[in-house]
Prior knowledge:
This protein has 61 residues and is an all-beta fold. It has strands at residues 2-7, 14-20, 28-31, 38-42, 47-54. Strands 1-2-5 form a three-stranded antiparallel beta sheet, with no helix packed on it.
Amino acid sequence: MKKGDIVCPECKAGIRRIELNSRKGHAGEFRCPLCNCLLEISDGSTEIAYRLTVAPEKLFE
């Protein structure tokens, strides 16, 4: 299992990324849930889960 963080280059949202090598996932792409910016393309060889952890400050203004 690998853990890491992704920061959206457009809106600066923080997203936690967990990758499980023991399970097969689905091929596709992951987009920022706030601004729809493309963040990652997956080939489906591993299971990947994402969770929004830090929303950008501009959303609270």
